[in-house]
Design a protein that fits this description.
24% of the residues lie in helices and 33% in strands. The protein starts with a strand and ends in an 8-residue tail after the last strand. With 495 residues, the protein is an alpha/beta fold. The longest helix is centred in the N-terminal third of the chain and has 16 residues, at 128-143. The model has no long low-confidence stretch (mean pLDDT 93). The chain has a six-stranded antiparallel β-sheet with strand order 20-21-22-29-24-27, with no helix packed on it. Helix 1 (41-46) links the parallel strand 1 (5-12) and strand 2. The chain folds into three domains: 5-286, Spore Coat Polysaccharide Biosynthesis Protein SpsA, Chain A (Alpha-Beta Complex), CATH 3.90.550; 298-360, no CATH class; 383-487, Jelly Rolls, CATH 2.60.120.10.
Length: 495
């Protein structure tokens, strides 16, 4: 008898373009604390099963994320106390079905009884015990070979979500057969769905045995399975990073779990021996797909306003109602507004009607078509995170740039050289170990050094507290691609 074990699979590859300017290509929404707390959406997802009934044996999570986000994901998981997660690094984006397939192949390699619980990293679940109850209801069905999805009890006739049509109740359980799926309906159809009481929102949460997922994929998406198998056969591993072979994965068709498999099962599940089931979930769920969804889950004042700020008093509202304001670095004042979203970051401000927040992605598309300097606003924040810490470009002009750099204790930048710029470093806090040409020496607070153009150099934090410096760059070209790396602790060759 095969012992079944639950393997959480955290799908962490989304771009979150409708949450620009806070969510960007290099730092998308799943790595943000959007609700103003201390934990990010990834961390919340990874901790979501804590307290689950011990009768369900559970393995550490598989986290499927873009390879460019590997250090960010690893750091956040470590900060959340999850030291045993395995990270599957996608060399390119191929949607959720290939991501789940990578996890299924990896899980089966270590556990023939693996049951996968696929959870997007960018969802909100306010009521964890309710989620646990739904997982317990789905567990026996998944162990028996069904593919189970979790449907959200609708709160309103929403036209932006897909719907699941409940069929007959499953004998002896709390789940239902799935009669069919309906994609984002018209307002009229959405109202009819709600009135019938037979429809649930499609949450994008799934539970399925790994071998059953591969069985269904072999029948429905054989090319996807073949390419994912090849990518995993030729994968490499360093530390907790598993790297599928890039060329094989790039040739994999892009598709979602729903479109690739789940929506075929009501008609073909019996033939494939993979029945489709749904468990109702009423756990304060939201996919936070756009700014209006964030406004809905936040606390409101008496006028229906919500805010997320860095410090109290950062928003002043006069005659304003049903409005969301996020402020990172400046005072935001509103007068006479209704149904508006305002998001302020150090390098961009978004103002949008709350009923048009789905169209924010059009702003990102427009920026991506702009010249390079403007295009970067769709890709990166002013504050850029690196595996060793972060930097903030606080000022720039003709032939100069000023950065605030923070280096984690024990971390170091690469041993590097620049062809087109010189640098001045001033230590503001902590102790710096500096390599400058042939010399290596320590700098304390209020001490400085000059790195001439062409000099090999490195910055390291040998201390126990964060190292903070101010860097002044000067030269004919100040782009981040003017870096020649000789040694790097993080396996980078550029950037």
């Amino acid at each position: 008898m095969v012992l079944h074990t639950l393997h959480p699979v955290i799908l962490c590859g989304g771009a979150g373009t409708r949450l620009w300017p806070l969510s960007r290509e290099t730092y998308p929404k799943q790595f943000l604390a959007l609700q103003g707390g201390t934990t990010t959406m990834l961390q919340d997802t990874a901790l979501r099963l804590d307290g689950l009934d011990a009768h369900v044996p559970r393995r550490p999570p598989w986290v499927v994320c873009n390879q460019e986000h590997r250090f960010l994901a690893a750091q956040q998981l470590q900060e959340a106390g999850i030291a045993d997660a395995k990270l599957l690094l996608e060399p390119c984006a191929r949607n959720t079905a290939p991501a789940l397939t990578l996890a299924a192949l990896a899980a089966l390699a270590v556990d023939p009884g693996a049951v996968l619980l696929a959870m997007p990293a960018d969802h909100v679940v306010a009521n964890a015990p309710a989620l646990h109850a739904a997982v317990m209801a789905a567990w026996p069905m998944a162990c028996d070979g069904a593919m189970v999805t979790f449907g959200i009890t609708p709160q309103r006739p929403e036209t932006g979500y897909g719907y699941i049509h409940q069929g007959q109740a499953v004998a002896g359980g709390t789940g239902y057969e799935i009669a069919g799926f309906a994609e984002k309906p018209s307002a009229e159809n959405a109202c009819a769905y709600i009135e019938s009481g037979e429809y649930l929102w499609n949450a994008g949460l799934f539970m399925v045995r790994a071998d059953q997922w591969l069985r269904a994929l072999q029948a429905l998406q054989p090319q996807m399975l073949m390419q994912c198998r090849q990518a995993m056969v030729e994968c490499t591993q360093d530390a907790d990073f598993i790297r599928p072979q890039a060329a094989a994965f790039a040739n994999c068709p892009a598709n979602s779990i729903d479109y690739a498999v789940m929506e075929h099962l009501p008609q073909q599940g019996t033939q494939l021996e993979v029945p489709a089931r749904v468990v109702a979930l009423n756990a304060g769920w939201s996919d936070l797909g756009a700014w209006d969804a964030l406004w809905e889950v936040l606390e409101h004042d008496s006028q229906g306003n919500a805010q997320v700020v860095q410090e109290p008093g950062q928003v002043l509202s006069v005659d304003t109602c049903n409005t969301l304001v996020m402020a990172e670095s400046a005072l935001v004042a509103t007068v006479g507004l209704s149904n508006i979203v305002i998001v302020q970051t150090p390098d961009a401000v978004l103002v949008v009607d709350k009923d048009r927040t789905q169209d924010v992605k059009k702003v990102v598309q427009a920026l991506q078509a702009q010249p390079a300097q403007r295009r970067t606003l769709a890709q990166t924040h002013r504050k850029v995170h690196r595996p060793w810490g972060w930097y903030d470009s606080i000022d720039a002009g003709d032939r100069f740039q000023v950065k605030r750099i923070v280096v984690h204790p024990g971390a170091s930048l690469s041993l590097q050289m620049h062809h087109h710029r010189a640098e001045h470093w001033v230590v503001v806090k902590g102790t710096a170990e500096v390599t400058n040409g042939e010399r290596t020496f320590l700098l304390g607070e209020n001490e400085s050094t000059f790195i001439p153009l062409g000099h090999v150099h490195r910055l390291k934090n040998p201390g126990k507290v964060p190292l903070e410096i101010i860097e002044v760059q000067s030269g004919s070209y100040l782009g981040e691609d003017d870096i020649v790396r000789y040694e790097d602790s993080y396996g980078r060759t550029k950037g």
